Amino acid sequence: MANLTLVQAINLALVQEMEADESVVLLGEDVGLNGGVFRVTEGLAQRFGDHRVQNTPLDESGILGAAVGLAIAGMKPVPEIQFEGFLGPAYDQIVNHAARFRNRTRGAITIPMTLRVPVGGGIHAPELHSDSPEAIYTHSPGLKIVMPCTPYDAKGLLISAIRDPDPVIFFEPKRVYRAYREEVPEDEYTIPIGQAKVVSEGDDLTVVTWGASVFQCLEALDGLPEDVSVELIDLRTIDPIDTDTIAASVEKTGRCVVVHEAPMTAGLGAEISARVQERCFLHLQAPVQRVTGFDTIMPYYKLELEYMPDANRIGKGIRECLAY
Amino acid sequence: MPKNTVYETDIEFLSILDEDAQFDESLGIEDGEPILSDEQVVYLYEQMWIGRQLDEIAFKLQRSGRMGTYPQNKGQEANAAGSGFAMKKGTDWVVPCYRENIAMNLHGLPYHYILLHWMGDERGNQIPEGVLCTPISVPIGTHMLHAAGIAWSFKLRGEKDRCAITYFGDGATSEGDFHGAMNFASTLSVPVVFYCQNNQWAISVPREQQMASPTVAQKAIAYEMPRIMVDGNDIFAVYKATRDARKYCVENQTPYFIEGVTYRLGDHTTADDARRYRSEEELQQWMAKDPLIRTRKYLESRDAWNDERQLELETHARKVVDEIVNEANSIAEPTTSEIFDSMFAEIDDDLRIQRDTMRTSSIGQNPEQAGLKAQTQNA
User: Fold this and answer.
1) How far is the alpha carbon of A252 from chain B, nearest alpha carbon, in Å?
2) Final residue of a domain: which of A184, A205, A225?
3) What domains appear along chain B, each with residue ranges and CATH number?
4) Contact by Cβ (8 Å): A62, B184
5) Taking CB atoms and an 8 Å limit, are A59 and B180 in contact across chains?
6) Each residue of A72-108: pLDDT tens digit?
7) Total structural domains in chain A?
8) Which of A13, A97, A273, B128 could form an SS bridge with A155, CB 3.0 to 4.6 Å?
9) Is-contact A315 A223, C-beta < 8 A?
10) Which residues of A242-280 are buried (b: 16+ CB within 10 A; e: fewer)?
11) Which residues of chain B are within 8 Å of residue A54 when distances are taken between CB atoms?
């Protein structure tokens, strides 16, 4: 066991998968000697050589297109896009190529690729460095979307993602990168893609969230009266969504609040609300409440904390839902 | 300090068998023999003829409602045949656009797959095991990056005698991904032949509205890539350029650029009518440069072809293409479950439920949920 940050846990998973499988290669802007802008790939070029930790030209579409080619020819590429705001140019290669190859070739060509992307706000970054675009990719068939928020989950889910025979987007909440440490086993282990985690059990209300918002929710829970018992679910995997875990919880509590950083309209809160009413209609004692980012452009960092759901706003949402 | 020229370059144009079927022996003869033996030219001529026959029949299938939109390859056959023949089947990867039917077939893809694709059936892309070919790529310019990635995998695994070839049109060179692919391939230094079929038109947009540069090949200069222009309707020039490019790529582990100057004799697709935007005069000029005509004349000049053999070939080609159409038509209709089952190696519960209840329930309604079953029964 070692006491690791999120960054270190991801780094460890990369090291172990690269050691275990020669077909695993990393590519992206600055991932080589520099170790990536967040140092997630630190030391890997030195350890495995430049050819397996390849600095690429500054071309996001090129990174994903080349990764698709590598995957077609039997490699397991792990491309990195520096910030989620730069996914735009790569959208076509992700959604129209990586996500479609298995289906459009009826299984003849598959893309075992793990796209790593730092995501979300809260680190006072420049513009287009703080968005939460996970719903866009969830709406696109053929991809799996993962967003762990703890070092332990990140290691286990990244190993699962790299071993997965299909394309996975592995979102890394950058606000949590170095926020805290936890014990992470040295040995390899996997956490199945598609399984949510019940962070804390409760009977009165269910909060569903993922990514860095898990920590804002925990803070909100701390601020609630002692007689309020909230069940907190960290989805960990966004697509496929673990509806069973959510439904089992809401059937018990009868109330549900969904929290995410991304804008509200057509966000994943809407999807989760729909699933909750489909599965738990007769159990619901209140409408599903959403506490999300606003339908605005993500503000520059002076106002980013106004935009992102914080413990105060989440706490209000929980109390409103309880009071209904 | 003087002003010096720091970079100079040139672009060569290769022509061996010209439109009057004049054969340039200084370029087309090596070690006393033509670079393609008569047998090989006969073979390639037959392949081009069958390819054109397939085109004609595909056109008729579309017009009679038995196939969807189809892009004819007509007039460009020497590009696909000569280059496809120069690459190593089973070793090299072919990453096509959609006017390279012959190259795909030379590398082992049965023709009925191509018909199936245009008949709206994904199984036309279900490339058989061992055939190193990506499926027909309809979005423009995005697949060249895949070729760069495939070639990169050769380098990573130390497979020194392998190369990829990717095909695209003149219009595709306006796309960002074209430049991305050229930049990745040259920067990473990987063995891939970029073959531009410059057929002068991107649907209705002529080459001069597509780019200010007088050649496509000069775009390779920015990527420090060896390049050549060839007469794309000259089977010898295409073959020689690609053979030499492949050798260069493998020996130097770098990419190579070929611009095949050719012409789309048909419409862009069956959904297009080229008479709306280009002149009959231009079309007639290019009809005279048809690769099939000059290849036949060459063979006749060497007593390797005659009217009788031509008649035999035409009969043979009709039979072969009839069989291809029968093969495509004989394949059982696809099953609806395919669209779900091929989404992932293992499909998730959402997909499973959607698949299993699509006939019995509206999407999104889990039949297991409380109340719904009773309502359905009551309805």
Assistant:
1) 15
2) A184
3) 13-330 (3.40.50.970), 337-378 (no CATH)
4) yes
5) yes
6) 999 999 999 999 999 999 999 999 999 999 999 999 9
7) 2
8) A13
9) yes
10) bbebbbbbbbebbbbbbbbbbbeeebbbbbbbebbeebb
11) 188
